[in-house]
């Protein structure tokens, strides 16, 4: 554990729409069994969050209990009203969720979510006590300097509505370069470290959003955390976590990386503080 007693790494999983409800329940039960005995979670080196499809959220909450945070893949900009088919942050929080995904590349590309919509949804999460998993990333492969500038602008834009409304809380920035999502390989470790390192420095300077963190997604899988652990606060997993044993391996990496950081005396400096929301 860090000096502050907070988890060093956030390990997140989004199911997208890959699983049926029955498969989701089976996966959650298997992963909960792993989480219940894994030292990375028991010792506080890592914190796990799981984002299933809407219909499976109650089952996931039942399966995990206190072992993992459970969240939703999207939310409405509004808290109530005549919005057929929408799900509000108020209702998501009422169920017991703690996190909600906002602004994923697929939402932006397939459903036309603009920066204005992403900002409104980020604020909807924060005002309802949810930690937004704010997905950002450059659309095409470019230089790290260009990617950093683009991503910092996206973070600032997404938080603008909350700043104006006076809402704050933990923001989990999920850096997912769009060109790496669904690709056979993630971006190179050096590329990830450089971009995430700059993003983390920026996010930590946002005093109105304390306890925030930067995690990496975009074809993240087993073996990656070990080589980028010095520059990120965790990873965000998709299809590479469909096998519970793969998730176990990633938790093993988190435990090893946290122990290495502690031995080097850097863990207390790098550890993101857990939100009290």
TrEMBL record:
| Catalysis performed (reactions) | D-glyceraldehyde 3-phosphate = dihydroxyacetone phosphate
Give an example GO biological process.
Answer: glyceraldehyde-3-phosphate biosynthetic process
Q: Where in the cell is it found?
A: Cytoplasm
Q: Does the keyword Oxidoreductase apply?
A: no
Entries under Pfam families matching the protein: TIM
Cross-referenced InterPro entries: Aldolase_TIM (IPR013785), TIM_sf (IPR035990), Triosephosphate_isomerase (IPR000652)
Coiled coil residues, start to end = none
- What GO molecular function annotation could you give as one example from this UniProt entry? triose-phosphate isomerase activity
- The superkingdom of the source organism is Bacteria
For this UniProt record, the keywords arranged alphabetically read as follows: Cytoplasm, Gluconeogenesis, Glycolysis, Isomerase
Q: Does the keyword Lipoprotein apply?
A: no
Write out the pathway annotation from the protein's UniProt entry.
Carbohydrate degradation; glycolysis; D-glyceraldehyde 3-phosphate from glycerone phosphate: step 1/1; Carbohydrate biosynthesis; gluconeogenesis
The record, for Gene3D superfamilies, names: Aldolase class I
Tell me which positions the record assigns to the signal sequence. none
Q: One Gene Ontology cellular component annotation?
A: cytosol
Location of the region described as Disordered in the Swiss-Prot/TrEMBL record: 257-277
Q: What PROSITE patterns does this protein map onto?
A: TIM_2
EC assignment: the record states 5.3.1.1
**Which protein family is it in?**
Belongs to the triosephosphate isomerase family.
Oligomer and partners: Homodimer.
For this protein, the record's PANTHER family field holds: TRIOSEPHOSPHATE ISOMERASE
Q: What is this protein called?
A: Triosephosphate isomerase
Write down the species: Mycetocola manganoxydans
């Amino acid at each position: 554990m860090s000096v502050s007693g907070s988890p060093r790494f956030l390990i997140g999983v989004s199911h997208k729409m890959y699983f049926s409800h029955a498969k989701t329940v089976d996966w959650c039960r298997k992963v909960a069994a792993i989480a219940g005995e894994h030292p990375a979670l028991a010792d506080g080196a890592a914190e796990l969050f799981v984002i299933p499809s809407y219909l499976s959220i109650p089952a996931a909450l039942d399966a995990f209990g206190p072992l993992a945070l459970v969240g939703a893949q999207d939310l409405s900009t509004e808290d109530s009203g005549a919005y057929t088919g929408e799900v509000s942050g108020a209702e998501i929080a009422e169920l017991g969720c703690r996190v909600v995904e906002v602004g994923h590349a697929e939402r932006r590309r397939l459903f036309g979510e603009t920066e204005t919509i992403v900002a409104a949804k980020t604020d909807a999460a924060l005002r309802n006590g949810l930690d937004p998993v704010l997905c950002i990333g450059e659309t095409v492969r470019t230089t790290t300097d260009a990617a950093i500038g683009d991503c910092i602008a996206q973070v600032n834009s997404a938080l603008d509505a909350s700043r104006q409304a006076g809402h704050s809380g933990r923001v989990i920035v999920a850096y997912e370069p769009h060109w790496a999502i669904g690709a056979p390989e993630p971006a190179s470790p050096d590329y990830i470290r450089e971009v995430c390192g700059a993003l983390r420095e920026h996010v930590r300077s946002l005093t109105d959003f304390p306890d925030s963190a930067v995690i990496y997604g975009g074809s993240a899988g087993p073996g990656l955390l070990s080589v980028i652990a010095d520059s990120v606060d965790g990873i965000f997993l998709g299809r590479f976590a469909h096998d519970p044993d793969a998730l176990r391996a990633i938790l093993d990496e988190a435990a090893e990386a946290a122990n290495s950081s502690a031995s080097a005396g850097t863990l207390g400096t790098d550890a993101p503080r857990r939100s009290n929301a």
